[in-house]
Amino acid sequence: MTTTTKVLRQLWPAACGVLFGVGLALSGMTQPSKIIGFLDVAGHWDPSLAFVMAGAVSVYFFANRIARRRARPLFAPAFSALPQSRIDARLIVGAVLFGVGWGLSGFCPGPVLVSGGAGATAALWFVPAMLVGMLLYHRFDARRSGPSGDG
Questions:
Q1: CA 95, CA 93: separation in Å to the nearest integer?
Q2: Who's near 9: CB < 8 A, 6+ residues apart?
Q3: Which residues does 7 contact at the CB level (< 8 Å), separation at least 6?
Q4: How far apart are CA 36 and CA 57, in angstroms?
């Protein structure tokens, strides 16, 4: 592997994160009022989140089609295998908790990190609460799945 490839392999995730953060900031999705406005279908509904989602799904659709034509990724030896997924109570409870938290706060993990980086006070309160929730989940999950980590 060349030095250039090693450097690109290390910088690629950071570049993707910066692009994602800039996109969130430009679209206004780091503002909780945008999310809450989207959820307020009976009041002053703000459809901008739907347009951002449509744009994201469109980009993913075409990028996925291009990626499927490749034998391997640009910066990895092989494509990762996707785990089998099933809809169970654990998934539904997690989705409900995520949705309620998102609806009440207007933040989800990506935008809150961008907002926190910009110094938004609400985000600076939300991030520690999110981290505590993640730690509690991992403790609960480790206890549930046992020492091997298998579910």
A1: 5
A2: 75, 76
A3: none
A4: 21
**76: amino acid identity, one letter:** A
Q: How far apart are CA 137 and CA 64, in angstroms?
A: 31
Low-confidence ranges of the chain (pLDDT < 50): 149-151
Rounded to the nearest 5°, which phi and psi values hold at 119?
Answer: 90, 15
Structure tokens at 135: 């730690």
What are the φ and ψ backbone dihedral angles of 118, each rounded to 5 degrees? Answer: -85, -5
Q: Cα angle vertex 64, ends 47, 27, to 5°?
A: 25
Q: With beta carbons less than 8 A apart as the criterion, state whether 114 and 21 touch.
A: yes
Q: Where are the alpha helices (DSSP H) in the chain?
A: 3-27, 32-39, 48-68, 89-105, 109-117, 121-145
Q: What is the pTM of this model?
A: 0.66
Give per-residue pLDDT as tens, 17-28.
Answer: 899 888 888 888
